[in-house]
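Let us practice reading a record.
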Amino acid sequence: MAVAVAAAGPRALLAQTGLELPRSAEPEARPPNPEAIPRPNTVAVRTSERLLVDGRLDEPSWRTAELLSGFLQSQPRAGAPASERTVVRVLYDSAYIYVGAICYDSDPRKIFSAGFDQDFDTQNSDVFGISLDTYLDRRNAFMFATNPSGALFDAQAFDDSRLVNRAWEGVVRVKTAVHDSGWTAEFAIPLTTLRFQSSPGDQSWGINFLRRVRRRNEEAYWAPMHRYHRIHTMSLAGTIQGLTGLRQGRNLSLKPFALASKGAGELRPPDQHGTSADGGVDVKWGVSSRMTMDLTYRTDFSQVEVDEEQVNLTRFSTFFPEKRDFFMENAGVFAFGDVSIQNYRLGSSPRDFSLFYSRRIGLLASGQPAPMFGGGRLTGTVGPLDLGLINMQTRADSGAAAENFGVARVKTDVGPARMGAIFINRETTGPSSPGFNRSYGADLSLRLFDHLLVNAYGGATDQEAATGDNKVGNVLLAWRDRTLNLSGFIKHVGEGFDPGVGFIRRRGVRQTYATLGAHPQPRFASLQELNPFVEGNFITDLDGVLETRELSAGLEAEFLTGAQADVGLRDTYERLTDPFRVPGSAATVQPGEYRFRDASAGFQSDQGRPFSLGARGSYGSFYDGTKRSARANARWRPNHHFSLDASAERNDVRLPSAAFNADVFRARFRYAHTTRFFASALVQYSTAVDEVSVNLRLNYIHAPLSDLFFVYTERRGMADGRVLDRLITAKVTRLLAF
């Protein structure tokens, strides 16, 4: 939607503040490589004036701050001056870091906002963003961003953008104003929200700023970089110096909660039926400037949105992402296993192997939550070591024994390499028969020559009555520059490897993967980038007998508008030693050797418009039959209050043993009245189980990081209308900071 020009904050107001600048500057000669330019520096200015965060930047103190401009594009023309002028100033006092930005725009009527939603979709909106490396380690960052509607996005990044935790939330004040010169953003970031080294003297932080002009699909940075890097790539950030006398404070907060709920349904355990009430508390304490402790008692996650239905036609388990805030915060500290890095094609990801998969804590095999007694997490730095500890205790419930989960993670730098180790323990507690499962491993990551990534890990598991090879190992090499993208890895997974608090898709295999791709940026047909690629994936058993082979080739295209299209071909070989029943059907594939091929194509229109549409289809053989798949999705955002997403996926499978359809239909509605009041509804229907699920959520932020939730969740069988599971919950939380 186009953000209307506000009556307040016109160009005349900016002139009165002394911050008026031309809308654009004369183009300057720039090196073709934006990362070859020296990293910019600025000096912080301390203010004694009380600043009102209103998006106007009209206090006299703003005139004393150094003016930061000269943003360079990362896309669509890397290294070229930004098409629109951006002016940033930074102030600080004993309690806050203040950032003010004027985002000039030659046509304010075309400014596009994703709306009021908290943690909005930053890729599809005009955006101003900030990243702060508070320890100047050039590795980790806090990130804050806003759109012209004043919505807040916040996140943590680890290991130079390798891992990004979008679930992290901090207390931040942000206001914006749209005017006839563009729009203005003003942030007040409390020092208590950040972690840094308290010091009476001067200190320096890493810092960078992002400006996104969505209608041009343009991204520009103060410390410039290529399009395959992001604002939280702190090794390429600038520096802010002269921060003096910063104190962390007590950094103690309590967040009690109270809830009332009513449960019913045939699949809900009997002891979870009827009305109940509960309460608990979360505690966050900054033990030191570099160490934070989180404690939780009688933890509850009833406000979390339900999982999206997935169609799984393979013989392997489905990975569902973690959505519970307690486990998502600082999750990057505990990550161990296959990696996924933006703009690299790596052939695997944490969805294939994660030694620590937090969804194994507090969820029963049926998917129902197990009552959590509580636990704690300690994360931070001790000398040269990055440390993470977790201990959680569940209660016995619904026939499941009480269990204790413990995780210890450590990382450190050894020369240019990042090395670490992890230990995970799961064991039953209480009067039930004791049982345990333990996992441990070591890993290494390394960047060489700016573009070469080396990642390796090795690990093992131990449990009662364990047999067979219990080890796992992987070595990955990947190269990504402005033109080439190539990678390969070798992986070994023993048949006895069984991580009790992890996720592994296949066991008892050796896997070899390689890919080669290019990323030319032609200047024709409105293309931003083309990506032709080939890849091969070979999986054998531990005796070297081929089980799976996938050979693929494809072409991906990204347009200057942000629209995307792709085509692909795949040739697959599968050897089955056991019958395979296709999930959600009566079809069974018998043991034998199979070779099948399929072709696919997809398109996604520009999502920076009020209406966008995507489609994908594939057709080919499937074992000894055929499979036709089609998926369509649409998004409608008529204004910054309302959005509607809908998708339909159809899989038509024909096998000698049976023919069936596996379909999923999904609709998600969101309404944001302001940046503090939200409503959403997710409705899903799956033909595989013939069930419809509904998840309705109301959320009112009555104070910073303090919420009032009302949640209604239901699963219902469509054949007879039976209620399988229903839960109604009202929950209130309140953050108390000391």
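A brief commentary: The CA atoms of residues 250 and 738 lie 7 Å apart.
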